[in-house]
Amino acid sequence: MSITKYGLFGKLKALPGQGQALADFLLEAARLLDTASGCQLYLVSTDVTDADTIWVTEVWDTQEDHDRSLQAPAIRELIGRAMPLLAERPEPGMTVNVLGGKGLA
Amino acid sequence: MSITKYGLFGKLKALPGQGQALADFLLEAARLLDTASGCQLYLVSTDVTDADTIWVTEVWDTQEDHDRSLQAPAIRELIGRAMPLLAERPEPGMTVNVLGGKGLA
User: Fold this and answer.
1) Is A104 inside a domain boundary?
2) Minimal-distance CA residue of chain B relative to A27
3) Which InterPro entries does the annotation name (chains A, B) (predicted)?
4) Which end of chain A is more exposed for a tag (fewer CB within 10 A), N or C?
């Protein structure tokens, strides 16, 4: 994998005790993204120190691929359903240039 | 992917102008980890706001797999060569429970 890809590390804070419920929504999003063009990685993780802090680690071929995916009705509908579980407004994710490594197609 | 995996998000700060050189070492490490058992993901990224800040995003089947990999002579030798490029002592990476998603085997 040589060409730089678009990476996005995002953190979401769930209402107390809602971490797993929020993660389930995000795992559903990952399934929806199975066919999303340019989506190389969409991982859902919980912070070992706080089960209500959820990390989403994304890698896309381009930012455009990522931005386009947010327009898909099924994704927008899912986001709508997940929002009530959030304890605070999500901060913008951290953007990185993914240079390469092991584990991506 | 259902079983929780061991995730480690680490940040390394290179000396001014040494970000790419440090990233190259880490990409070499990724190649060495190709055969490391339990290593599902080892991505090297640069922060879009600071090319001397390098992110390493790792996913392992278990923490033991990860810790064992640090004993490999080739990895230890590589770490030794990379250390002089660091501007500061690396902070411990952030540990997460990777629940699943898209992109891992």
Assistant:
1) no
2) B101
3) ABM_dom, Dimeric_a/b-barrel
4) C
